[in-house]
Specification:
Layout (H helix, E strand, L loop, with lengths): L1 H10 L3 H14 L4 H13 L3 H14 L4 H13 L3 H14 L4 H4 L3
Helix pairs in contact: 1-2, 2-3, 3-4, 3-5, 4-5, 5-6
Length: 107
């Protein structure tokens, strides 16, 4: 039920409310990968890039092959002007996702 409420807040662009719900979900079940991605997205919309990066990096540590999160990490590194991190992520991405056209378009 909480997950649906969080997604409702996401659709209505009520980022702070969505984040409160997702924090509660993570307390109950810290293994929810998609919640970390959604949190990163919401923090980014609030321009809280440090928090957005933290959520995305937590997910990356759990599952480096989560492609949407990997692309999110690249986008966050670009937004925060971390050109070295972008380069490092692209090098890693070529190894993790060698045939992905979306990643190849960034090279």
């Amino acid at each position: 039920l909480l997950q649906y409420l969080g997604k409702f807040y996401l659709k209505t662009k009520e980022w702070s409310e969505a984040l409160q719900i997702w924090e509660e979900i993570l307390k109950q079940n810290p293994a929810q990968e998609e919640i970390l991605l959604l949190m990163s997205y919401a923090y980014s919309k609030l321009k809280k890039y440090d928090y957005a990066c933290t959520s995305a990096e937590r997910l990356y540590l759990r599952n480096p092959r989560h492609f949407r999160n990997f692309m999110n990490l690249i986008a966050l590194a670009k937004k925060t002007n971390q050109s070295q991190k972008v380069k490092q992520l692209l090098r890693t991405g070529v190894k993790l996702f060698p045939e992905n056209p979306e990643l190849q378009a960034l090279l």
